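Q: How would the structure tokens look for this protein?
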Amino acid sequence: MKLRGFAVLFFAFGLAALGQQDQTPSAAQGSSPSASSEDSKISEPPKLLTPDVNGALSQEQIQALIRTVAQNHRENYKKQHDYTYIDREVERKLDSNRQVKSTQTKTFEVMELYGEPIMRLIEKDDKPLNEKDAAKEEERIQKIADKRKNESEEERRKRDAEKEKARIKGREFVSEIADAYNFRLVGSEILNGRDNWVIAGEPRPDFRAHLKEAEMLSKIHGRLWIDKEEIQLAKMDIEAIDTLSFGWVLARIHKGTRFVYEETRVNDEVWLPLHYEAKVDVRLALFKNDNEQDEGSYRDYKKFRTSAKIVGMGEVKEQK
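A: Here is the predicted structure in token form.
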């Protein structure tokens, strides 16, 4: 089984654990939901947070901080679409004694194609693809481009509807987060030369999930590093503290599965992925366990104008 899918799951949880990122101002602050000005109030960075004499922040302060991080994360996500970068992933398969039995490295170019991020494989085990594999990869990218280019209005509406359905489902899931965790300020830490708040989240023992998908929240804990100046998520470290079971395939993620993710400030305008590490112990139905230790690093960030487009065989053409 490919670890990346489970890493994405944990990453999605980490973003959800920003607290109330899809909560309306009325739910978060007890105010009227109709005024759009409330959104701007949420997005004002609380830069003057002052811990009490015991070095703690109040729950109200932490909630305000987390709501701002969530708002800023959404705005930052839009800016990420203007960038391409290189993603190098190392996948280490472990044997029953937790020793590395095989290692595979893949390097991708991450780019934007008709409004969606696309990963284009460019190297295997730090060597350029051979002619056959390169041709297959270019053909795959071209098929995606052709499909989007020739997409009918009905197909586009259907795709947008599916995205909206997923977004609504996500909001239902996220709405349970505030009740699932007790957040507290651990302290401050310098990360990549920048000062961060460190916030820990522990499951509340009295939490009862309304959604089946939210049942996993009681079995995951972690920490968030929040950049004090930009009020952005700089790092997260989340871990399964009990076995997670989910899905029609009866996938089970075992206790100790962990995912660490970092972002970095680029061009003084956007936060982009920098590094991740993952340790996953998973079992699918009646199949054998799949244990992996993976890591990924990102580099060569390049910004393109919004008029940039993908043409031909994956070639990026920038308007002069």
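The chain is about 30% helix and 40% strand.

The helical segments are 4-16, 25-29, 37-43, 59-80, 131-149, 153-174, 177-180.

Upvote if useful.
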